[in-house]
């Protein structure tokens, strides 16, 4: 049984790699065969060469962006979960807060970025605030959905054994909510990096968004693509880390 | 005011419930705006940080044409990208469902493609397609198709294989099984993704406009930011919020009409 499972995942893995290589080959062929200029589509090998060339500055920018996204992400997750627990504890607040949060969540987050830049300056603080806002709403809504999944009868049972509100929350609601909370956290990883980069493009002292913006102004599209690759490497690593935590600690799913 | 109160009192119970459900959020909103207005005035908060709601409203009313034109342009970009992304997303889900090899070859790439900050891509897309409505729609499209594909596949996988066998045994063709069994079964999951995709498409359109354009909500945002016109930023945020909520509401309405059986959420 376990042997067949591992050979299955091995095949999936190798096919995934094959798909990526296929794409890279087609890309390289198109770029070279059609002799496309670099501003239209640089070849894969040119991008890799550019990546190696600018490794130092790209790495510094990546560290900058990663620091902003991680800090904002952590703040956003904590704030979102705390708010969700609070709302669950105070039932009368629900009917006001949840429609409001859903409404605010449907507003494009990027619309706030000029405002946040004016308020918090173009340093790291404005990016952290933007990421925290973007992440906290997603986490808030998924935590609420998770806390609500608890079976009414389980609550009644645990209450009949004399458990108080806090005990119900700690022993029943939070463990039930965990799978949905972590799923929300997994989705938010990619979002946090994207929001940090978007905000950097509007104004920053450093970071990948700033590098991309400068490279666009200088019509250096090899550098744009190299920065895009670094950015997706950060998102992928972040996404992978949270997925690993999810598989490790939400083992009962 | 008293006229509406007596009118509401005369209506049947069910209707007042519905009327109340519509009116209550509006009343809360008005109350919240009044509170913000009062707080700003009483504490003397500088308009640089938070302009009064009435100032924001009068900013919009001063040049309604510019905001309407921006709204219309961004709306078109968003809807084009959203529709293309939804259709492409469902088609890809069907293809991936039908041919496992195709899924194993390319689905990981689909997932990786979403970790690429689209925005970084925006400059390249605008370069490819020119500074047109179409270029922004392409960005909206790119940002919105993956949730649709993922959720449609999730919906497909929840179909009971015995139902498929039953339909086969009655001689149903693949296309019929897809249309009558798989697609309806995936609809509830699909709509969850469509709601997400509609707001993502709007983000794509607004950010796409930052790479150079003359009309649109994204342009209004940038112009207000460069002029440090905080009331203008807020006015654009309010207009974008209306557009975002309108799109979300439209998809939710379609969901209630089409997925009438999915009432448990």
UniProtKB/TrEMBL annotation, chain A:
GO terms for cellular component: plasma membrane. One of its GO terms (biological process) is transmembrane transport. InterPro entries: MetI-like, MetI-like_sf. Its main location: membrane. Gene3D superfamilies: MetI-like. Residues 58-246 form the ABC transmembrane type-1 domain. It is a multi-pass membrane protein. Keywords: Cell membrane, Membrane, Transmembrane, Transmembrane helix, Transport. PANTHER family: ABC TRANSPORTER PERMEASE PROTEIN HI_0355-RELATED, ALKANE SULFONATE ABC TRANSPORTER-RELATED, MEMBRANE SUBUNIT. This is NitT/TauT family transport system permease protein.
Automatic annotation (TrEMBL), chain B:
Its main location: membrane. PROSITE patterns: ABC_TM1 (PS50928). The chain crosses the membrane at residues 26-43, 78-96, 105-129, 141-159, 190-211, 231-251. InterPro entries: MetI-like, MetI-like_sf. Belongs to the binding-protein-dependent transport system permease family. One of its GO terms (cellular component) is plasma membrane. GO terms for biological process: transmembrane transport. PANTHER family: ABC TRANSPORTER PERMEASE PROTEIN (PTHR30151:SF41), ALKANE SULFONATE ABC TRANSPORTER-RELATED, MEMBRANE SUBUNIT (PTHR30151). The keyword Transmembrane applies. It comes from the Bacteria. Pfam families: BPD_transp_1. The keyword Nucleotidyltransferase does not apply. This is NitT/TauT family transport system permease protein. It is a multi-pass membrane protein. It is found in: Cell membrane. It comes from Rhizobium subbaraonis.
